[in-house]
Specification:
The chain has 131 residues and is an all-alpha fold. It contains five helices and no strands. The protein has one domain. Helix 1 runs antiparallel to helix 3, helix 3 packs parallel to helix 5 and helix 4 runs antiparallel to helix 5. It is elongated.
């Protein structure tokens, strides 16, 4: 379970940087200008593109579910129920969240929502495994 916690936290970090990467790479700034803005106070940060905005919303969505996931995973470890359904559900959550990011950034409407539902339901399964 600890590995899954670290993987989800790693995904969180990747998503944080993805927003910046898309912001700068799609800004039209030269490499020198990107370095100047990135190393400065960021008062002149380029506006987010459509894909950058989607990446930011995907990150915001992870921020909403991350505390629930972490809490359930830690409870599973503390209650020694970190096997079977709990681990399977946590794995499904991680895989669904990994799939969710590119689907959201690319603007795939229905499949993205389906993947989100899978991740959301996996949190209920994690909670059920604690009972």
């Amino acid at each position: 379970m600890l590995t899954l916690i670290l993987l989800v936290l790693g995904l969180y970090v990747v998503q944080i940087y993805l927003v910046s990467i898309l912001c700068f790479s799609e800004s039209g700034l030269s490499n020198g200008e990107m370095v100047t803005v990135g190393m400065g106070s960021r008062d002149d940060t380029p506006s987010l593109t459509v894909r950058g905005s989607r990446a930011e919303r995907a990150l915001d969505n992870l921020k909403e579910s991350l505390p629930i996931f972490i809490t359930l995973a830690i409870l599973a470890i503390m209650l020694e129920k970190d096997s079977g359904l709990a681990v399977t559900s946590a794995t499904v959550f991680f895989i669904a969240r990994v799939l969710y990011v590119p689907l959201y950034v690319k603007g795939v409407p229905f499949l993205r929502s389906g993947v989100w539902v899978v991740a959301f339901l996996s949190l209920f399964a994690m909670a059920f495994s604690l009972v």
